[in-house]
Amino acid sequence: MGELTSRSENPVARLLGRVLGRLGSRRASGDGPETGAREHGSIRSVVWRVLFHLTAVFAAVVCAGLLVNYIIMPIMVRRGDITVTPGLVGVPLVEAEKMAEAAGVRIRVDVERPDPDIPVGSVAFQTPQAGTEIKRGRTVGLVVSSGADMRNLPMLVGLNARQAQLDAEHAGFAIEAVVEVHTNHVERGRVIGTDPGQGAVRSLGSGVRMLVSLGPRPVELMMPSLIGKTAEEARLIVEALGLVTRSVKYERGRRRSVREVVVVQDPVAGSHVVEGEGVALRIGN
Questions:
Q1: What is the pLDDT of residue 1?
Q2: 59 and 18, same structural domain?
Q3: Does the reported pTM lie above 0.85?
């Protein structure tokens, strides 16, 4: 029974037992004063070592407890409560609900808005974004697509090109090309037609091509000779042909006599010109 009790004691108790037993046996043996002093010093040293070890063990136990209680356990609990936001953009709303439930989060539809790239009823945007770490049970806000924003092209035919462009852009369309052609039926600068046509339903931002009039095609003429004509005679001929006097220059830099005539013309006689084209004259002797 005594042996069993001794084995069940902790190491510190056994160490103290041996020290005290050695002290009692030496006192009983009747050694001299010097021997007793040495023994007393040795025993005190052992006791201090025992107390030091006890203190170190106690401090280690306290530190371990604090570490587990305030650092390790909160991290373990917190990590167990964290999940990753699933990627829901482009996913139909019904499927997005299932994915969110599997990830341990909830979803909330904040708004519906047109989106030309996302099908109707699918997620167009989410907050927080996919891959974000959040606590389980938190809510992910969704923007759901209502499809492309379809609009009717307004009436542009008959408007001047600038006004037609402003009206198209105000309706949500973009003028992607302007083609100009001659016509005898529509005033110059006005819209003849559009592609697509008036009332066509297209998505917001779609492009529109406009056909714009340049007016009647100019008549092609043969340039007559103006050499030897006075400046006034040449001007009257140019205007009668539907041409425009672009410039009149005098040799030596100034007009000297009413008898001075055209000595150089541009375009030259015999060349092909069209209505509205300019003519340059040089006047000399």
A1: 42
A2: yes
A3: no
